[in-house]
């Protein structure tokens, strides 16, 4: 359990300090983008010394993710802001739940509101979507994986949200592992796939090799290769089940991954077919945000 929590907090390809520096950079850039030369509304309406309490409230059901980033937003504007987390990352939330309370200068809270809420809603949406997939395939041992179909420059945040929702991260970048797809095969000018894999295996030391196939005939050949993972692209659950039987008989050490056309409606059928991994680009590229708002609490003493 401790190891799992550590993986969620630190990530599988970055240390905690590295991730924190990256997150702070994203927050700082987002604040510069949103505030510009200053919050002219708050500056000209709100007294500089006015302090207030605000609540971050969930407007729907889901899984919370991004609390530390929301805190970093307000902290970047004023280190004296008090940020009280009520619902931690990875916990479920229901409509109307207060997920955090913030106390500080009213101008600071108003200036940081949109960036904090945007990041929290965005990452919670990914975590929520991931949890839906993970829950859908229980009790099967199949892992739900993300893909590189992420928002440019926000990949580390999105991968963190996937882990928070119970999913697993695929390769972070092109250097993490080799993945031979149809375009690679075409560009290799006539070499057989087994030759390509053998050549690659000899050159990349101990890094894993994934090879994509879209027919069972291609799978049969790849089961005799040195591939570590075979990606079964756009196959239906019946084909996946047959592929698993072929793998179990010929090369049980090779992992099988299903991808393409997999949705919440059919993901359980893919898991039931016995595949080891299911990769879903929709975790990051088609997620909906979890609506969260910031609401000021009136001062009862006024």
Folded structure, characterized:
The chain is α/β, with parallel strands linked by helices and about 300 residues long. About 45% of the residues lie in helices and about 20% in strands. It has helices spanning about 1-10, 15-35, 40-45, 65-75, 105-135, 155-165, 180-185, 195-205, 215-220, 235-250, 265-270, 280-285, and strands at about 50-60, 60-65, 80-85, 90-95, 100-105, 145, 180, 210-215, 230-235, 255-260, 275-280, 290-295. Strands 6-11-10-9-8-7 form a six-stranded parallel sheet. Strands 3-5-1-12 form a four-stranded antiparallel sheet, covered by helices on one side. The radius of gyration is 23 Å and the shape is elongated. Mean pLDDT is about 90; it is low at about 1-15.
Q: Key features?
A:
alpha/beta; TIM Barrel; elongated; four-stranded antiparallel sheet; disordered N terminus; 302 residues; Aldehyde Oxidoreductase, domain 3; 18% strand
Q: What is the gist of this entry?
A:
This protein has about 300 residues and is an alpha/beta fold. The chain contains twelve helices and twelve strands.
The CATH fourth-level homologous superfamily of the largest domain: Aldolase class I
Biggest sheet overview: 6 strands, parallel
Helicity range: 40-55%
N-to-C terminal Cα separation, in Å?
Answer: 48 Å
Average of pLDDT: 92
Q: Give the overall form.
A: elongated
Count of beta strands: 12
The oligomerization state is single chain
State the low-pLDDT regions, or none: 1-13
* Rg calc: 23 Å
Map the helices and strands:
Elements: H1 2-10, H2 16-35, H3 40-45, E1 51-58, E2 62-63, H4 67-77, E3 82-85, E4 92-93, E5 98-105, H5 106-136, E6 143-145, H6 155-164, E7 178-180, H7 182-187, H8 193-203, E8 209-213, H9 216-222, E9 229-233, H10 237-250, E10 255-259, H11 267-272, E11 277-279, H12 282-285, E12 292-297
Parallel strand pairs: 6-11, 7-8, 8-9, 9-10, 10-11
Antiparallel strand pairs: 1-5, 1-12, 2-4, 3-5
Helix pairs in contact: 2-4, 2-5, 4-5, 5-6
